[in-house]
């Protein structure tokens, strides 16, 4: 199965897709016209100033020198002592061991084998006890600005290298949960324990699998050097100021989404090729032969079928090969997905038809969540299944399909109503919000009032106006379709009103009017 990283550069837009046999495993996009070099991206570090502390929300707003203040939650604001860290680590390991002994599934929040650390220290601590307005603190972007929200920041600094993640404030040794071999996890943990000094943390990323001590040590040394540079800047800096900017867009993609088993690195611009070569030479020189420059007439994303997949991901309805479909609706914090049989009628029983549609939908749903970068709470409404083993089969298939997802997910079993509740971590905006904007006509509602509804609104308004005015002539300006209805189907009502109030009504169409817009004009006497 060919796996390729495809990079497209079009003037001020960069697009990167990791594909495998035509299927998008990951997709990233950046518009340079929208993001200047100092824009807050995940990984950037700032010396910020606390603007407001909100005890009622257990959070604070921090000025980092950007257009919108950053949001800091209490769990991300509190820096635990070394004793508290070790106590939490011991409790996590004990609970994990007990659950393994009892054969229970270990929830993600208790797993130490993660790409990032998600620990809760001192649940009784209050943000006002250790943070006040005017304090200068070092923070890192954890989530980029999304919609109207400013960036979310954390004081738990992490510096990501190619193979490891360095944490200067959290003592922890971890290994990516994607590395499944117990023997390999133990080997990596032993190496990391020998590398890191007391009081700091190191996590082996997925690509660290099979890597030598020397490779991991070099990666660690590079990250320590970056952190020392941040500390030097901090000594002379005055808040708010940026202390560290992450790699370029292309290089971040190479670091974060490229696997060791990628067969080709293909780009259609010389500048992208230079950035790729620079990264490859420094971190993975044995991949140098995989770099290829694309200069064919057909656009690169069209050639690899990526543009078609993006268009599918921008639609609310996605059709399945069997004839069924899934409908995806996104709101600010919730994504709802509805599965339908559509044209698929099956060949055997109704239950078999429903099962086949739901199983096919599972693969497409997991795929669409990745491509669209859907996050927050996700509700999936599968077609109702009567048999418990069918429900379990669909649930197991969903968990298996989500293993390809790089974002952290938490999935609950199918409920009695046939619903699946799940969450998916999101650090950047969705594909739809990145590439689309609310319709200026319907103002983002997604629908407009029908011609019939507007016509009745006009008639009700006319009755109100005609009772109050002495003028014998009234003109109605509206959209052509509304005027057509008033002059044909509703003309009898217009005549009744003219006779009832002894007035003349004139209907005038105007193409510049919105479908819901109308105006009742009364000439001055």
Tell me what you see in this structure.
- With 525 residues, this protein is of the alpha+beta class.
- The protein is built from 14 helices and 24 strands.
- Strands 16-17-18-19-21-20 form a 6-stranded mixed sheet, covered by helices on one side.
- Strand 5 and strand 6 form a beta hairpin.
- The longest helix has 24 residues, at 213-236.
- The chain starts with a strand and ends with a strand.
Overall geometry: globular
Which residues sit in consecutive blocks of at least 5 with pLDDT less than 50? 104-119
Summing up helix and strand content along with how strands pair, one would put the structural category as alpha+beta
Number of helices: 14
The overall average pLDDT, rounded, is: 87
Strand content: 15-25%
Rg, rounded, reads 29 Å
Q: In order across it, which strands form the biggest sheet?
A: 16-17-18-19-21-20
Distance between the termini: 81 Å
Task: Compute the number of strand runs.
Answer: 24
Summarize this entry quickly.
With 525 residues, the chain is α+β, with helices and mostly antiparallel strands. It contains 14 helices and 24 strands. Strands 16-17-18-19-21-20 form a 6-stranded mixed sheet, covered by helices on one side. A 5-stranded mixed sheet has the order 3-2-1-14-15.
């Amino acid at each position: 199965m060919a796996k390729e990283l495809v990079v497209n550069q079009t003037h001020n837009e960069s697009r990167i897709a990791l594909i495998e046999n035509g299927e998008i495993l990951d997709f990233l996009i950046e518009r340079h016209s929208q993001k200047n070099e100092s824009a807050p991206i995940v990984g950037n570090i700032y010396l910020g100033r606390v603007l407001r502390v909100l005890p009622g929300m257990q959070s604070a707003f921090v000025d980092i020198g950007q257009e919108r203040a950053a949001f800091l939650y209490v769990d991300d604001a509190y820096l635990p002592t070394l004793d508290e860290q070790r106590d939490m680590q011991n409790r996590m390991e004990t609970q994990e061991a007990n659950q393994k002994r009892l054969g229970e599934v270990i929830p993600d929040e208790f797993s130490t084998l993660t790409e990032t650390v998600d620990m809760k220290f001192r649940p009784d601590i209050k943000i006002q006890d250790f943070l006040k307005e005017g304090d200068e603190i070092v923070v890192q972007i954890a989530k980029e600005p999304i919609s109207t929200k400013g960036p979310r920041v954390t004081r738990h600094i992490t510096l990501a290298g190619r193979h490891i993640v360095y944490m200067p404030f959290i003592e922890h040794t971890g290994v990516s949960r994607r590395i499944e071999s117990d023997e390999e996890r133990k080997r990596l943990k032993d190496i990391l324990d020998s590398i890191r000094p007391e009081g700091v943390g190191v996590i082996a990323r997925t690509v660290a699998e099979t890597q030598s001590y020397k490779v991991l040590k070099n990666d660690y040394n590079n990250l320590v050097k970056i952190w020392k540079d941040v500390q030097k800047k901090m000594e002379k800096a005055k808040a708010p100021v940026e202390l560290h900017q992450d790699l370029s867009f292309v290089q971040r993609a190479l670091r974060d989404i490229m696997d060791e088993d990628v067969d080709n690195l293909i780009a259609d611009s010389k500048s992208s090729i230079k950035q790729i070569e620079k990264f490859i030479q420094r971190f993975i020189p044995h991949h140098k032969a995989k770099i290829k420059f694309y200069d064919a007439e057909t656009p690169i994303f069209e050639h690899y079928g990526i543009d078609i997949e993006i268009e599918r991901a921008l639609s609310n309805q996605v059709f399945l090969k069997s004839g069924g479909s899934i409908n995806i609706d996104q709101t600010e914090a919730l994504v709802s997905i509805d599965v339908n049989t559509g044209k698929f009628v099956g060949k055997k029983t109704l239950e078999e038809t429903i099962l086949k549609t739901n199983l096919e939908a599972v693969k497409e749903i997991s795929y669409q969540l990745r491509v669209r970068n859907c996050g927050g709470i996700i509700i999936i409404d599968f077609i109702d299944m009567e048999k418990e083993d069918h429900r379990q089969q669909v649930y197991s298939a969903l968990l298996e399909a989500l293993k390809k997802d790089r974002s952290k997910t938490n999935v609950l079993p199918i409920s009695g109503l046939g619903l699946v509740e799940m969450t998916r971590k999101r650090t950047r905006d969705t594909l739809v919000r990145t590439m689309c904007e609310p319709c200026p006509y319907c103002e983002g509602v997604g629908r407009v009032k029908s011609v019939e509804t507007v016509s009745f609104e006009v008639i009700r308004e006319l009755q109100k106006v005609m009772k109050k005015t002495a003028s014998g002539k009234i003109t109605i300006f509206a959209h052509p379709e509304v005027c057509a209805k008033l002059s044909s189907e509703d003309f009898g009502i217009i005549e009744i009103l003219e006779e009832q109030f002894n007035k003349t009504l004139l209907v005038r169409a105007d193409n510049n009017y919105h479908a819901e817009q109308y105006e009742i004009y009364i000439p001055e006497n």
